[in-house]
Amino acid sequence: METVAPARPETAEQRRTAGSFECCGVRIDAVTLDDAVNRLFEYALRRRPATLHLCNAYTLSLAASDPEYAALLNDGDLNLPDGQPVAWVGRRLGFADLEQSTRGPDLMVETIKRGQAYGIRHYVYGSSQDVVDALVAELRVIAPDAQIVGAESPPFRDLTADEADELATRVRAREAEIVWVGLGTPRQDRFVEQMKARLGTTLVPIGAAFDFIAGTKKTAPEWLQHTGFEWTFRLMCEPRRLAKRYFVGNARFLRNARRSRLLNPA
């Protein structure tokens, strides 16, 4: 059996900030994919409500111009470097272990595969029902013994108070330990921070990872994922939807990332 988690500082605050840097006003925790999976197991097995955010260049470009959104991300228990540009910033600041970023699809697949050994209970929430159904079907192929205890597509709007209560009832009744959320950025980040206490579990917003794992959207070739130019592939696939995000967002990210600074040594 694999080790659930490496040794950690004793307090939650130390555990959250040890080995981190600031990029575009947001704390990024300098952890690898393997460490991120272990942290998820730690939160889940302790049944401690927690939120993880995958922070890519687009996410950070939004945070750079929205202090409220930046503060919300900084409230997260773990902020992961998603995308090579963010990992590059970490390496420049001395975190040599960040050879690769932590991508949403990789985090979800590795956590669910390795979580089979511990009986981790997963709940999938987001996207359309067709995508959710395809995602769950693919996960059952990848991890046949995984406990996926719930999967649903929410309305394409904010939940009413009654709907939020009903969701909390469903998640708690099925004793879900990790809820995977795919609502798009920045909506999903706000959702998990608002719902953490109510759901009483660990929430991970991973956006387009639902589509990539389900096969409803194409993923960039693996060699391109490691170059920092994965966004060019996505832009070619969805130019009208993503042009502004990448051209404006990437420029804003680069402008603000130049002021990144070390927060805590690894």
Description:
The chain has one domain (22-264). Helix content is 50%, strand content 16%. It contains 13 helices and nine strands. The strands form two sheets. Strands 4-3-8-7-5-6 form a six-stranded parallel sheet, with helices on both faces. A three-stranded antiparallel sheet has the order 2-1-9. The longest helix is centred in the C-terminal third of the chain and has 19 residues, at 239-257. Residues 1-16 have low confidence and may be disordered.
Write the layout of secondary structure elements.
Blueprint: H1 12-17, E1 20-23, E2 26-29, H2 33-46, E3 50-55, H3 57-64, H4 67-74, E4 78-81, H5 84-92, H6 104-115, E5 121-126, H7 129-142, E6 147-152, H8 161-173, E7 178-182, H9 187-199, E8 202-205, H10 209-214, H11 222-225, H12 230-237, H13 239-257, E9 261-264
Parallel strand pairs: 3-4, 3-8, 5-6, 5-7, 7-8
Antiparallel strand pairs: 1-2, 1-9
Helix pairs in contact: 2-6, 3-4, 3-13, 12-13
List keywords for this structure.
266 residues; alpha/beta; six-stranded parallel beta sheet; three-stranded antiparallel beta sheet; 16% strand
Secondary structural class? alpha/beta
N-to-C CA distance: 27 Å
Number of DSSP E strands: 9
Q: Give the mean pLDDT.
A: 85
* Domain module count: 1
Regions with pLDDT < 50 over 5+ consecutive residues?
Answer: 1-16
In this structure, how is the largest beta sheet organized?
A: 6 strands, parallel
Number of helices, counting only DSSP H or I runs of 4 residues or more: 13
Q: State the order of secondary-structure elements, H for helix, E for strand.
A: HEEHEHHEHHEHEHEHEHHHHE
Q: Considering DSSP H and I runs of 4 or more, what fraction of the residues is helical?
A: 40-55%
What Rg is obtained from the alpha carbons, in whole angstroms? 17 Å
